[in-house]
Design brief:
Blueprint lengths: L7 H4 L20 E10 L12 E3 L11 E5 L2 E5 L5 E2 L1 E7 L6 E7 L15 E10 L2 E9 L3 E7 L10 E2 L6 E7 L5 E7 L12 E7 L11 E5 L12 E8 L2 E8 L7 E7 L7 E2 L6 E2 L12 E10 L5 E8 L12 E10 L2 E3 L10 E3 L18 E4 L11 E2 L7 E4 L2 E4 L13 E6 L4 E9 L7 E7 L4 E9 L5 E9 L8 E7 L8 E8 L2 E8 L5 E8 L5 H4 L6 E7 L2
């Protein structure tokens, strides 16, 4: 049974569509009742659990990119990007850097940000979290939806403040640094001074900001132009963090883009404003030079953030991906952990041909209890919707009306005219695919009309998804239908891969199953207590990969209802 964590903002969301009136209730037989949802992951790399004293990478499996971490005494807090999914920016807590429990979401109220009409890979990019004088800060960018902003909270589980917008700060990836003298600085990625010399030419800027209003109180200056070796025309210097260690200020940034050439680079200065001298041995983290055909590769590593353990040892969280072939992966960018070794005054993560490990020795911290909802390794979960939705469930963009209810042990979705593929806000409740080999299942009670459908989906974006649902033909007879959309050039509803009539009694439940096996996805249904029947044969799962679909998100499994 899934451990339940209440998410009040989702449990009690009211219509925000104007006039102060709730939407009219749909007829009971038009609603889709999902009795349960189950997920199971079975990856080969997780087949042998770590021994006592070791931990498992990734620490957050599945679509948990751009990790940022902060330390408050013996507690650690970590946030990730969620782009145009809602709630946005999950907040995790740990006391041992290994076992993580989600305690909330930063963006959990409809009025905080507006993702209307955005692609799923727009929205909130690369949040950073800091703690100072009893207050938590998250700096972030809402791409195509407002720009850079800061939110604060006394309790990291929330509530978080409404965004304080930073209109004078351009670009992306803002982060904060609180210096010992009380001054506060904001760093960000933006265009360089003058015209960029090449595609991907960016710079890291810094400015002092007011600690209360967050508005600029100094002119911004460039502290890294292009990258640590500008003569090589490096691309996408981004994700800056500053750390004050001993006599130096260390600037850590990602470089090389988020694909296979991703890396982490360092520079340091004896003044927070620079000038910064790059480390001659850069990058301090990358896997781009290794054999791409190695067994169980971890690639595209970077976007790192440092912390320490109880003995003062340094650790780093960063993103990486686990391809099943070439650069194909459906699980998105995940969160990894590695120890850091200081050498000649520089924090080193990997050297030479060193691999990012799947298992390694734990930090010097007392082992915490495993979370009720696992974040790594092989596991299975079954939720029966006996409490409000847990904070890991995702909505496609921000709901503007209450089209779902958790009641009498079921998740009830109202079919609506906003459908899959419309780039709107369809009736979808989804969770991340966290394994290359995984199974998602659900059971539904639904009386379809010719223009309605409800079931189970696997999606990467509005343009790339599979939908396995219970619908009706033109005469109103029930059918099981498998649809696939494989690109923006296809109609929003995609193409029908297979459709079969089904005999079922009024009120009889249907079970749906999606099995992911690396690049193959298989679909099946079962009426009542009958056996599962396959539909559609083997489908090419590469259409759910980042390499095919583009963007920055990973695949999700979810329940959906559409019609009207």
């Amino acid at each position: 049974m899934i451990r339940r964590l209440i998410l009040p903002a989702l449990a009690g969301l009211l219509c925000a569509c104007g006039g102060g009136e709730e939407p009219a209730a749909a007829p009971a037989d038009a609603e889709a009742r999902f009795d349960w949802f189950s997920y199971e992951g079975r990856d080969e790399v997780f087949a042998v659990a770590p021994g006592e004293g070791d931990y498992q990478n990734p620490i957050l499996a599945g679509f948990y990119p751009d990790p940022s971490i902060t330390q408050v005494g013996g507690d650690y807090y970590l946030v990730n990007s969620t782009f145009a999914y809602f709630p946005g920016i999950p907040v995790f807590h740990s006391t041992d850097l290994v076992n993580w429990m989600q305690i909330g979401n930063v963006i959990d109220r409809p009025g905080m940000l507006d993702f209307k009409d955005l692609g799923l890979s727009r929205g909130v990019f690369a949040p950073t979290i800091e703690h100072h004088d009893g207050l938590f800060y998250v700096a972030n960018t809402c791409v195509d939806c407002g720009g850079n902003f800061i939110v604060t909270a006394e309790d990291p589980s929330g509530p978080w403040s409404d965004p304080v917008w930073l209109p004078e700060v351009g670009g992306i990836d803002p982060s904060l640094f609180f210096d010992e003298d009380g001054k506060v600085y904001l760093m960000n990625n933006d265009a360089p001074v003058g015209e960029p010399r090449y595609d991907g030419h960016r710079a890291i800027w810094i400015r002092e900001i007011d600690p209360d209003t967050f508005q600029s109180i100094s002119e911004p200056i460039v502290i890294i132009d292009g990258g640590v070796r500008p003569e090589e025309n490096p691309i996408w210097i981004e994700g800056p963090h500053i750390y004050h260690v001993g006599e130096y200020y260390y600037l850590s940034s990602a470089e090389g883009g988020t694909a296979v050439n991703h890396s982490q680079v360092l520079a340091r200065a004896d003044n927070v404003l620079g000038p910064y001298t790059p480390f001659e041995g850069n990058p301090v983290l990358t896997q781009r030079h290794l054999d791409p055909d190695r067994e169980h590769p971890i690639t595209s590593v970077g976007h790192a953030d440092f912390v320490t353990d109880a003995e003062g040892n340094w650790w780093v969280s960063f993103l990486g991906v686990r391809p099943y072939e070439g650069d194909f992966y459906n699980t998105g960018r995940e969160t990894f952990l590695m120890p850091v070794e200081w050498k000649d005054g520089w924090p080193i993560i990997t050297e030479g041909d060193e691999l990012v490990p799947y298992q390694a020795a734990r930090p010097a911290l007392p082992a915490a209890e495993a979370p009720g909802i696992p974040t790594t390794g092989n596991f299975s979960l079954k939720g029966e919707f006996d409490r409000p939705l847990d904070p890991y469930w995702l909505f496609v963009r921000v709901p503007q009306e209450e089209w779902w209810q958790v009641e009498e042990g079921a998740l009830v979705l109202t079919p609506r005219a906003e459908r899959l593929g419309d780039r709107k806000q369809p009736s979808v409740v989804a969770r991340r695919q966290q394994h290359l080999t995984a199974t998602a299942m659900t059971q539904i009670e639904f009386t379809p009309a010719p223009d309605s459908e409800a079931g189970l989906l696997a999606m990467q974006s509005d343009e790339y998804y599979f939908a396995l649902g219970l619908g009706a033909d033109e005469e109103g007879a029930p059918v099981i239908r498998l649809r696939r959309r494989a690109g923006a050039d296809q109609p929003p509803r995609g193409e029908v891969v297979a459709e079969v009539p089904v005999e079922m009694s009024s009120g009889e439940a249907v079970r749906f199953r999606i099995e992911a096996d690396r690049d193959i996805y298989r679909f099946a249904y079962a009426v009542g207590d009958r056996e599962f029947i396959a539909i559609g044969g083997d489908q090419d799962g590469k259409l759910l990969s980042t390499r095919t679909a583009g963007g920055f998100v990973g695949a999700t499994f979810g329940m959906y209802a559409e019609g009207g």
